[in-house]
Amino acid sequence: MNRLVAVSCAALAGAAATGAYIGVVTGRLTVDLGLGRRTRPLGPLHLDIAAPRETVFAAAAAPYADRQTRAMREKVEILERAGQMVLAAHRTVVGSGLTAVTVETVTLDPPSRMGFRLLRGPVPHVIEAFAFDETIDGTRLSYSGELGTDLWRLGQAWGDLVARSWVDAVRDPMATIKTESERRA
What is the pTM for the complete model shown? Predict the structure, then answer.
């Protein structure tokens, strides 16, 4: 009987750990305890684009426009709009059949800046920005941010893992912004 209880407890603990992992990875469960907060930089990334700053900003802001394509609506859902700020749910495939859903405020400051603040996701703290700077040949698109996790070294290890995926997920839209901007120009 004791062996059966031990096996049942181990199975229950394994199921709970799996559920917690899936919840954190997909953004359904955010651990925001405010204990042992550690932050780390995201980026910086830079991309030179042969297009005017206004064109590059318009391409970057397209996911938050009043009218979205069907493909864009599947990735970015606008939950609320207020002036130059939107509340958006972003869907990102993270592997193993899982999709992360993050909820962020997006502040549009045309044509120079877009700011992002995480409200719900796999970590408790992310702030990011795209900056659009004029250059002789067009525009330099720059990305930078900060990611924070709780629980000291354990959270830092999780944050390092998330940060790598997060920055990789930013590279794809930056490449799309470059392609679309140069096409429009």
Answer: 0.87
Q: Residues 94, 165: contact at Cβ < 8 Å?
A: yes
Between 67 and 140, the higher pLDDT residue: 140
CA angle 126, 30, 174 (to 5 degrees): 35
| Token duo for residue 54 | 């206004």
* Structural tokens at position 23: 């919840």
Cα 181 from Cα 179, distance rounded (Å): 6
Residues 87-114, buried b or exposed e (16+ Cβ, 10 A)?
A: ebbbbbebeeeeebebbbbbbbeebeeb
Could you tell me how many residues make up the chain? Answer: 185
Distance (Å, rounded) from C-alpha 87 to C-alpha 106? 6
Q: pLDDT per residue over 19-71, tens digit each?
A: 556 666 666 677 788 899 999 999 999 999 999 999 999 999 999 987 777 77
Q: Using the structure block, give the residue that is written with the tokens 């297009």.
A: 51
Which is nearest to 32 in space by CA: 162, 151, 166? 151
Distance CA 56, CA 111 (A): 8
Is the bond leading into 124 cis (omega within 30 degrees of zero)?
A: no
